[in-house]
Write a structure and sequence with these properties.
This protein has 22 helices and 15 strands. The chain has helices spanning 2-18, 46-54, 58-67, 92-105, 135-153, 169-185, 200-213, 221-225, 238-253, 255-278, 289-294, 297-307, 342-354, 373-382, 419-426, 428-435, 448-452, 459-479, 497-507, 509-518, 523-542, 550-574, and strands at 31-33, 42-44, 75-81, 85-90, 119-123, 157-164, 285-288, 311-314, 317-320, 331-334, 360-366, 390-395, 398-402, 405-406, 444-447. It has a 5-stranded parallel beta sheet with strand order 7-6-5-11-12. Strands 1-2-4-3 form a 4-stranded antiparallel beta sheet. Strands 8-9-10 form a 3-stranded antiparallel beta sheet. Strand 11 (360-366), helix 14 (373-382) and strand 12 (390-395) form a beta-alpha-beta unit. The longest helix has 25 residues, at 550-574.
Length: 582
């Protein structure tokens, strides 16, 4: 119906153009569902948009647009509101026609071609493979997967990608941590570094090293720590301590350091892949940071910056002139010791992304990366690509609450709740739904007790219960050997207030999908589904669906069948199941 109204408006404005009142047909006409029923079903601001061009009062232009619409059977009446908005009141027949459309196209209801096949590369999660995913990563995973589903629903071609940070200092710290746990399991007495990774998973990987290599890497701990400066809690420098331990380990182990690293990265990355897959999050590509180094792409990107005079030497390091592109200060890309910074790898990665030819590149990052946006966009501009093609969406951390108390977490110390533990406790459905229930840039408090509850206060349970209730209605139809034939239904019988409210809400679904996708706000869809469930539960409690009046019964069954389909479609986009019984 929205498309039909927009087409009518375009035709009306075209007639006004013929009269010479305005000269240009707008590329788009905004048409929104009204929030207040007294304002009709749809409203447009097109008269306000075109009034300046028409050199006339918006209300007068609105009246002219209405007059050129002609007589249309699905429009009951129009009104001019406020400074020049046009409100449309649709006929009961047009509102009920949404039922036929939903039942006919089923899973495809809500789809559109707004994306027109544009290609999108969506990168998200991309957590350092230094340990299992925790609840903070889970929010980015749920958000990214849902954004991907929404974009595909409105016509975009989306590839999901995980950037694996498998190179650099953090990976060296991981390897040393595993090596030291290995030595401890072999009976060596040693002090574990303050900056090491201390979770139990490190010891589990060390056990895998023993299974695969036995005593091959067993060394005396005094040789490893000989000449190493004191650690932080010993009154020394924890950063220098771990860096010296890395250097010492590499020297003592030789090629064995890489062997330990390989077992560690394989174990952690496989765990991440399994965890995400079980969470309903699938990636088309896992891109290795190390591949940028192995293929020379990181080195090549720095050379290109040098050749184009975008870098300079200072204090023995190589600096990128990011201030020329709006960054607050220039950034180091090659350190004094000749090692590339993390930023240098990121430059190469984004250059590689853009050269793949996507129409749009989207990164979903943790909110703590906000200061990183300007420098990344600077690198894109320096390579003569359009930085506006890159959109960066930020996701705030999720705080867990159990029994009203915040659950304390620390990744480095290993005291954190993993995504797997969260899923096991509350289930995938509740986790996926609760993660996207607030805007991504807002802090969220995840109430574990509420997520596990089987009450109407739990929004995901409330929505799923609406779907299960409808399934129960149709089981009753079968048990009573009744015949449901939607093809011969008289939808004009749906005149109750609850029915009109439900019809109006069903007609909003496509607009909600489009808005959620284009604004990257899946919480809009979550709230819509909760409202739809509320309207259905009210209808269920107020009106019988199976009754002696067969015509009315058939009409009401058609309405709830359409409601069931929309609930199922929406939950599927959110990655949440639609159970048939609860």
């Amino acid at each position: 119906m929205k498309e039909q109204l927009q087409n009518l408006l375009f035709k009306s404005i075209a007639k006004i153009i013929e009269q010479g009142l305005i000269s240009d047909l707008p590329e788009k006409i905004r048409l929104d569902h009204t929030k207040d029923k007294s304002h009709g079903d749809y409203a447009t601001n097109i008269a306000l948009v075109l009034a300046k061009q028409a050199k006339t009062n918006p209300k007068e232009l609105a009246q002219s647009i209405i007059e050129h619409l002609g007589d249309v059977d699905f429009i009951k009446k129009t009104e001019i509101a406020g400074p020049g908005f046009i409100n449309f009141f649709l006929s009961d027949e047009s509102n009920s026609s949404i039922i036929n459309e939903i039942i006919k196209i089923k899973e495809d209801f809500g789809s559109s071609t707004i994306g027109e096949g544009q290609s999108v590369l969506l990168e998200y999660v991309s957590a350092n493979p230094t340990g299992p995913l925790h609840v903070g990563h889970g929010r980015g995973a749920a958000y990214g997967a849902t954004i991907s589903n929404l974009l595909r629903k409105v016509g975009f071609k989306v590839d999901n990608e995980y950037y694996v940070n498998d190179a650099g200092r953090q990976m060296d710290i991981l390897t040393v941590s595993i090596f030291l746990r290995y030595l401890a399991l072999k009976g060596e007495k040693l002090r574990f570094p303050d900056n090491g990774y201390q979770g139990k998973y490190i010891e589990d990987i060390a056990c895998k090293i023993i299974e695969k290599y036995g005593d091959k890497f067993q060394k005396k701990s005094n040789l490893l720590f000989d000449g190493i400066c004191k650690d932080g809690l010993e009154g020394g420098d924890k950063e220098s301590h771990i860096d010296q331990l890395i250097a010492s380990s590499k020297e003592i182990l030789g090629a064995g350091f890489k062997s330990i690293f390989d077992v560690g990265i394989e174990s952690i990355l496989n765990g991440i892949k399994d965890d995400l897959s079980e969470f309903g999050v699938v990636f088309e590509k896992w891109f290795s940071e190390q591949s940028l180094i192995d293929n020379g792409l990181s080195e090549d990107s720095i050379k290109k910056l040098q050749d184009s005079n975008h870098v300079y030497n200072k204090d023995g390091a190589l600096w990128f002139k990011t201030t020329q592109y709006g960054d607050e200060k220039d950034r180091v890309v090659v350190r004094e010791n000749g090692n590339h910074t993390y930023f240098a790898s990121d430059i190469a990665y984004h250059l590689e992304k853009f050269e793949r030819g996507y129409d749009k590149v989207i990164n979903i990052w943790g909110a703590d990366h906000h200061g990183y946006i300007a420098r990344v966009k600077a690198s894109i501009a320096a390579f003569n690509h359009d930085p506006e093609k890159l959109e960066i969406l930020l996701v705030q951390f999720a705080n867990l609450y159990r029994s009203g108390k915040k659950v304390q977490m620390s990744t480095r110390s290993g005291s954190f709740v993993t995504l797997e533990e969260l899923r096991n406790e509350v289930g995938n459905d509740a986790a996926r739904f609760f993660y996207i229930l607030r805007k991504s840039e807002q802090h969220m408090d995840f109430d574990l007790d509420l997520a596990k509850s089987k009450t109407n206060e739990n929004p995901v349970f409330y929505i799923q219960y609406a779907h299960a209730r409808i399934c129960s209605v149709f089981r009753q139809v079968q048990e009573k050997s009744l015949v449901f034939n939607h093809d011969k239904v008289n939808l004009g019988l749906l005149v109750e207030a609850n029915e009109k409210t439900l019809l109006r809400e069903l007609s909003r679904y496509r607009s909600v999908i489009e808005s959620s996708a284009l604004q990257y706000e899946p919480h809009q869809l979550a709230y819509y589904l909760r409202d739809l469930a509320t309207y259905f539960h009210s209808y269920y409690n107020a009106c019988p669906f199976i009754m002696e009046d067969q015509d009315l019964s058939q009409a009401r069954l058609s309405l709830v069948l359409a409601t069931k389909q929309v609930l199922s479609n929406g939950l599927s986009i959110l990655g949440v199941s639609a159970p048939e019984s609860m």
